[in-house]
Amino acid sequence: MKTLLATILMVVFSVGFHAQNRLETAKKTAAENKELILLNFSGSDWCVPCIKLHKNIIETEDFKKLQADHVILYLNADFPRNKKNQLSAELKKENAALADQYNPKGLFPYTLLLNADGKVLKTWEGLPSENALAFSNEIRSVKEN
């Protein structure tokens, strides 16, 4: 009986704590690996600068090397509008909580570089003017300092 009650309580509490699960997991992993967290707010199917950011920076080899070299963990808080691209209710809730905490003005794209505690180290409003290599080098520079 105690095992059943404990299991039920764990399920109930895990549902309540899931709203920040990706960020909390990223913080833990970033702390363990001495990485930074890059959090990007995007509208993947309606925001033209967001689409360009992903195509010209996020999807490039220079950016992917940041992840492979354990410089950053990448989190995307997406807010698609098209019905076919809708996220699960759970992910929508999590992205909304991230927006409440880090993007209260509702800017798109909006990119933040965070330390493992979630402290904002740098922000980019809109599409960064740098190319992928310069953007990646800027992130590496912040990590080194």
UniProtKB/TrEMBL annotation:
InterPro entries: Thioredoxin-like_sf, Thioredoxin_domain
Name the record gives this protein: Thioredoxin family protein
Top-rank taxon: Bacteria
Signal sequence residues: 1-19
Organism per entry: Chryseobacterium salviniae
Cross-referenced SUPFAM superfamilies: Thioredoxin-like
Record bears the keyword Repeat: no
Record has Metal-binding as a keyword: no
Alphabetic keyword roster: Signal
